Amino acid sequence: MSSLRVRDLSKVFGPRPQRALDLMHEGLSRAEILQRTGQLLAVAEVDLDIDEGELFVIMGLSGSGKSTVIRMLNRLIEPSAGTVELDGERIDQLGPAKLRELRQRKLSMVFQHFALFPHRTVGENAAYGLKVQGVDEDERRRRATEALETVGLADRSDAYPEELSGGMQQRVGLARGLATEADVLLMDEPFSALDPLIRRDMQDLLAKLQAELSRTIVFITHDLNEAMRLGDRICVLKDGRVVQVGTGPEIIDNPANAYVADFVSDVDRSRVLTAEQVMRAPRRTFRRTDRPELVLDWLEEQEYNGAYVLDDDGRILGVARDDRLARARRDSSGGVGHLLVDDFARAGRDTLLSDLAGMAAHHTVPIAVTDDEGRLLGVVPRARLLAALSNEEADVDA
Ligand SMILES: Nc1ncnc2c1ncn2[C@@H]1O[C@H](COP(=O)(O)OP(=O)(O)O)[C@@H](O)[C@H]1O
Ligand SMILES: [Mg+2]
């Protein structure tokens, strides 16, 4: 089910928006429209489908229209044209009372800055958004405590902000945002003012919380690495228009145009690309009943030192390694099943290349990529990993 559905959303800042919209429909650019009408087409014909539970990132340079888009979602800015639907309800048609309720309960902007009130306790700070929403005191306390638990600060509820480290204060701010009951949280560059270490910490925390709570979050950033770290999907905006929507790896592997390609050219690939994207099928696997000679001959021919041995369901039983096979060939009895060693590294589909890099060094065979049941999906040889990390095409013959 699609939670937020946006169609043809446009915004003109100026007294005669229709004139600018007409020119937009004729295909004129933002700059041309500005020149002809003196009006700024901040957002142009944006379509978005944001899924329930998704952390959806809107990314673009300053002035690309990010804040205008997110503010039109809950009509802090009135759209000039287009529609916004939340679970089938037309937000662009709500009256004032319904709109207020919507902002409190369904589509709320998380505080832009995580600054805390110095004279209120951590608990009171965490509950502040709820107070504004008119939630009663017991409920406020309960939910604030819950939110503080999720950021690991439940035991500091009675402390004052100045008694906490800067990083902890930021966590309280995030807890405050999460304590609100809204289905969809709107976050407009919430971490951009933070120093890099705390920022990293907050990104990790948000990713973790999102994995646990699966709120729908629309998150704005101008920082590509932040977008890649956090976003289930990323929407790239340029001059008010959507140029591409996709997962981080999709955008990196397949940029929609030169603009996006340029944008992503300096991204840290190791923190975006996953094992699934660089693995290849194993050249050959063996069964436990295969004779050592057979495996050894193949290894010699390939100049490999070991091979995976799988059970009937494709799960890894172990590695048949040349030295053990060679010794066993002399006393030659039965299959390789009793000769296997545990000499391999295992990764999941979603393991990041940065994590694969640490696993690659010490084993005879390429890293195994397995599914949840332990079945072998593919392998990542070291050369292939290094090629992917160094920004070459990952289809090298490794
Ligand atoms: N209230 C406003 N009046 C006139 N122009 C505005 C207003 N708000 C934003 N703009 C302009 O609209 C464009 C998009 O702004 P904004 O949505 O804030 O971009 P971003 O958040 O991506 O930096 C910018 O050129 C900005 O100057
Ligand atoms: Mg902005």
What is the secondary structure topology, with strand pairs?
Blueprint: E1 2-13, H1 17-25, H2 30-37, E2 40-51, E3 55-59, H3 66-73, E4 81-86, E5 89-90, H4 96-105, E6 107-109, H5 122-132, H6 137-150, H7 166-179, E7 184-188, H8 196-213, E8 216-221, H9 224-230, E9 233-238, E10 241-246, H10 248-253, H11 258-264, H12 275-278, H13 292-302, E11 306-310, E12 316-321, H14 322-331, E13 346-347, H15 353-359, E14 367-370, E15 376-380, H16 382-389
Parallel strand pairs: 3-8, 3-9, 6-7, 7-8, 13-14
Antiparallel strand pairs: 1-2, 1-4, 4-5, 9-10, 11-12, 14-15
The protein binds adenosine-5'-diphosphate and magnesium ion (MG).
Magnesium ion binds next to helix 3.
Describe this structure in words.
With 398 residues, this protein is α/β, with parallel strands linked by helices. Among the domains are: 54-110 and 180-267, Rossmann fold; 276-389, CBS-domain, CATH 3.10.580.10. The protein contains 16 helices and 15 strands. The chain has helices at residues 17-25, 30-37, 66-73, 96-105, 122-132, 137-150, 166-179, 196-213, 224-230, 248-253, 258-264, 275-278, 292-302, 322-331, 353-359, 382-389; strands at 2-13, 40-51, 55-59, 81-86, 89-90, 107-109, 184-188, 216-221, 233-238, 241-246, 306-310, 316-321, 346-347, 367-370, 376-380. Strands 6-7-8-3-9-10 form a six-stranded mixed sheet, sandwiched between helices. Strands 2-1-4-5 form a four-stranded antiparallel sheet, with helices on both faces. Helix 1 crosses helix 2 (30-37), helix 13 packs antiparallel against helix 14 (322-331) and helix 15 packs antiparallel against helix 16 (382-389). The longest helix has 18 residues, at 196-213. It starts with a strand and ends in a 9-residue tail after the last helix. The relative contact order is 0.10. Magnesium ion binds at residues 66-67.
